[in-house]
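Researcher: Before we compare anything, I want clean individual predictions. No alignment, no superposition, just each chain on its own. First chain goes here; please echo the sequence and then give the structure tokens.
Model: Echoing the first chain and its structure:
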Amino acid sequence: FFLCVEVARASRAAAKSCRERARRTYPAPLCLMQHFQKPENALRRADELYAVGQKEPALVALHDVLSSKRHRTWQPMMEEVMKRFLTICVEMRRGKASKDGLIQYRIICQQMNVNSLEAVLRHFMQLAHEGAQAALELAEKTISDKVANLLDFDDLEAEETPESLMLATIGGSADSKKRTDRLLVTPALKFLWEAYRTVLDILRNNSKLEELYRDTAAKAFEFCKTYKRAVEFRRLCEILRNHIHSQTKVDPKWKDREPPTPEALQVHLETRFGQLATAVEMELWQEAYRTVEDVHALTLLMKKPPKPSSMASYHAQLAQVFWVAGNGLFHAYSLTRSYATAKSLKAAPSEAELTAPSEAE
């Protein structure tokens, strides 16, 4: 009897823990499940709720379809449901809900239609980018200032403290720019940053969407360069470094896992070339040096030599890193390697491109 009582008590505690976890991940209305026989019914119901301003119940209806086991078979209507779900998430800036929905949709279409997952992820990034642009334009109109002057905050992932909120409240008109940053600019850029991180996390072990992984990393690099996000760039480099480490490390628990293909290693190498170019342009020389180490480690894993066109530009960037470090010998050697590699191609580098690092100093 006492054993049964303890088991029942443990079961109630586990159920309560699950409810609390769901309540922290989603808003309260999203924890209430609805059930639809067909995805069309959920999409129609979500459109009706959205039309009258009920965005939370609309998310409930769409999330139920994505997480229901009876809708695990992909069909064209599921893509429409997912896009509508992401549209509402972007408008409400629900990063955790959008990531959970994308994970559910990856399970649905991973085996049957990977192209649909690619289309949905590109749609998600486009929506997040358009939302950030709209927020920046609104901020410019609000305080009549340029976008470049609105990007002087340090960390997108830093949490607001009670002290900062109190000071911003009593700061008066002199702190109107900081309030605009907190209300308009920071949330939009933070959601765009989370969108890129979410897509990279969804694609990190997907060998069928390696091109999309590279394109997403390139967009994230452009985001860091455009909005001067040095902190986020360092985190992005660490994320990419962990992804390739998880794919190449030897783990006895995953004996049946296949190693990365030569094509996958080439994609990762090209991503590191873009990372190095961004680090050089942002003058983050320590991160550029770490990226050079990553490139060297990847070339050791590759059975085929990298593309000569990529290596020519890589050696030119490497020459600039050595020039800034004051190492003239390695700078000259890198320029020689860049010139020799480019000479074998149809389009040889110009003299201005080779002497640019020296003239810049």
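Researcher: Okay. Second chain, same rules.
Model: Second chain and its structure:
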Amino acid sequence: KKEKERKLMQKERSFLRKTNSELQLVGADTLQSIFDNAPYEDLLQLNQDITRDGITQEEVKQAIVRKANILNGMKEEEEDAKAIASALQQEQEKARKEEENRMKDDWSEEELRMLDKALKKIPVGSGKRWSLIADYLQTRTEAEVVHMVKHRMSTVQGLTKSEGHIVKDKHKKNLDVQDEATQRYESADIGNAEEDGNDSPNNEDQGGAKLDWTAVQQQALVRAVKTFGKDVPDRWERIAEAVPGKSKAQCMKKFTELRESVKAKKTGS
């Protein structure tokens, strides 16, 4: 199959190269940029477009140049998207390490040892599990216990290894915090955030949509930009559909901000 695809691609490249040579339309660099970036379907469509009945030599030239510009723009944007994704990952990793260090400094080794012991003694499904664990530690509140367990799960692959303490496979089930107690805690946390004014009009645009971007939304935006290229009809509408809770305008604005941020860092370095 790959050999067949290679031959088909070679056929279309040879046709375009021959057409350009006969008519002296564009330079070698323009042609090469198409060969480097165009998938087979794009190349086939281009050759069909420039051989349609009634097309003039100038229109053929414009079609080739336009395709080269589109492909170059797509390549540049793809590179920007990769740079943005890398920058976001670095920022998240930095934040994760800072949070990990903060949590490590905040909790003593004895508290962590007692927490591991409590998680084993009080398994998932136990009534008021987090309250019981907090009582067992005697030095932490229920909210602090839940926060620490969730933090350790998110940073060390399910808490199979954490702060020098190894958790045996048979005990991993005890580390699942997605039970009713956790949901209650998350609901309370959201409620507290609302009381603190995080949902005030200052944090919303005129359409009532939230202005803050979560890490998940930013990652979804970058993935969508990579997926839907510049040649996709209604491109930004489709990108917005792939980003939960964000409009077309917000997606366009955010990607521009991320792009400029990455370029500024490159210039600064």
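Researcher: What stands out in the second chain?
Model: The two ends are 45 Å apart (CA to CA). Additionally, The first helix runs from residue 2 to 23.
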